[in-house]
């Protein structure tokens, strides 16, 4: 059976890493192979041009940054996500295309443009959006890290806009979860959806081999 692609999305500090770790444990406990990954990858995050923008807000060409993000994602899909899914490994990705669509929309680039440069990449089997007010996510990041480090994190309005943009660009079937709930309650909602999708894919593959 092919692996599932699960995308966990949300603002910085919304609880993605917390949920991803719990979900990984669930897969391991159920003897299902699982791989954690993230988009963008470290190639993008460590690029000096990207760092300059994230750290200081300085950016001579936002389209160039979007192209770097798209190239990073396309490479990651071809070299990591697609092969793993095909060999039966379930993939959990920390952020996906929808982060690019939402963040770059607020940075002034149309989602249609971002979609075009990212190419024809697969819709995840499960898309989770951890929905939370920026006031709370920023507080959580501050409590976790002791400070806010990204330039954009200094402006809660920016995050209000990114949250609204997410809701416009997420796939229709995305699981939009109230992220003020307890981590264990959120986890239960996610595994219910994952179990349904695992069953569905198994049935489809059984039908196709008949
Ligand atoms: N449901 C929750 N309720 C209260 N606090 C939470 C919840 N989920 C996570 N947290 C706490 O909020 C902080 C941020 O969580 P986490 O690191 O999982 O977020 P994140 O979305 O991965 O952030 P980033 O985008 O910066 O990687 C952590 O200190 C975590 O313990
Ligand atoms: Mg995280």
TrEMBL record:
Secretion signal span: none
GO biological process: dTDP biosynthetic process; dTTP biosynthetic process; dUDP biosynthetic process
Cited Pfam families: Thymidylate_kin
Residues binding ATP, per UniProt: 10-17
Reaction catalysis annotation: dTMP + ATP = dTDP + ADP
This protein's UniProt keywords: ATP-binding, Kinase, Nucleotide biosynthesis, Nucleotide-binding, Transferase
GO cellular component, one term: cytoplasm
Its EC number(s): 2.7.4.9
A GO molecular-function descriptor: ATP binding
Domain Thymidylate kinase-like: from-to ranges: 10-190
Family named by the database record: Belongs to the thymidylate kinase family.
Function per UniProt: Phosphorylation of dTMP to form dTDP in both de novo and salvage pathways of dTTP synthesis.
PANTHER family listed in its UniProt record: THYMIDYLATE KINASE (PTHR10344), UMP-CMP KINASE 2, MITOCHONDRIAL (PTHR10344:SF4)
NCBIfam families (alphabetical): DTMP_kinase
Protein name, UniProt field: Thymidylate kinase
Species for this entry: Bacillus solimangrovi
Lineage: Bacteria, Bacillati, Bacillota, Bacilli, Bacillales
